[in-house]
Amino acid sequence: MTIQPMLTEENINTIINVLREKKYNLNSFHLKYSAREQSLLLDGKGIQGINQTDEYYEAIEDNLVYADFNWISPMCEALNINFTAKLKVLPEGGMEHNKVRLVVTVPVPVECNGNKHKVQEVLYNPFMRVVKFQSFVKEVVFFGNNHMVTKVDFILEIEGKKIVPHLKDNPGINHQCLNQWMATVDKIIDYGKKDYKYVEHLQVTNGRMANISYESTTSFRFPSNKKKDY
Q: Strand pairing partners for 126?
């Protein structure tokens, strides 16, 4: 199946023309993919007003084409879940594709209202898509508010050139890994009932979520005891 590019030739030409016009010296590109809108937001960050050579802009163009073909569009297609990524731009216009930090965000609708069964239903399909990339997952973060899980972030570290071969190998669903993830969700839901607001960071090793959080944040909310004046 042919993957449709998120960054078309026209899109990349527009980016390069703006960078030339404003004389940008870039430090990084920040990407934000919206599954709902099927769109990609690309923010270039750096310093304006610095003259660059034609070779610099050609390198940026070549690297954007490479990034889109090798990992941006394939990840959008395979995940179809909101994610963000940061792509470092090197001084000569090249980009660091070998160590890209990608954050996949799975929200939990308010309508679940803390119901464990509903939360697990909502998370199961997205987790099933993310588990195909288990070898790239380094960390998972559970966010809770009002005693309920509100979203889950997967932190991936990807090597751009490995994504297409990985997908061509057609990785199936590792159900043992998926079941372990869902069992962890079950524990987090139970644990989170004690806290008004929380953040739990779990390391992921060989696809398995750690049983113990390496960093936790808990918050408390208390109403004022002051009597209201009417």
A: none
Q: What are phi and psi of 205, to 5 degrees?
A: -125, 125
The pLDDT tens digits of the residues spanning 108-165 come to 998 887 788 999 999 999 999 999 999 999 999 999 988 889 999 999 999 999 999 9
- Other CB atoms within a 10 A radius of the CB of residue 195 amount to 18
Bridge partners (DSSP) of residue 175 are none
Strand-pairing partners, residue 26, are: 46
pLDDT tens digits for 40-55? 999 999 999 999 999 9
Q: Encode burial over 13-24: b for 16+ CB neighbours within 10 A, e otherwise.
A: eebeeebeeeeb
Distance from C-alpha of 72 to C-alpha of 8, rounded to nearest angstrom? 12
DSSP string covering 147-199: TEEEEEEEEEEE-HHHHHHHHHT-----HHHHHHHHHHHHHHHHHHTT-SEEE
3-state secondary structure of 221: coil
For residue 182, count other CB atoms closer than 10 A to its CB.
14
pTM of the model: 0.88
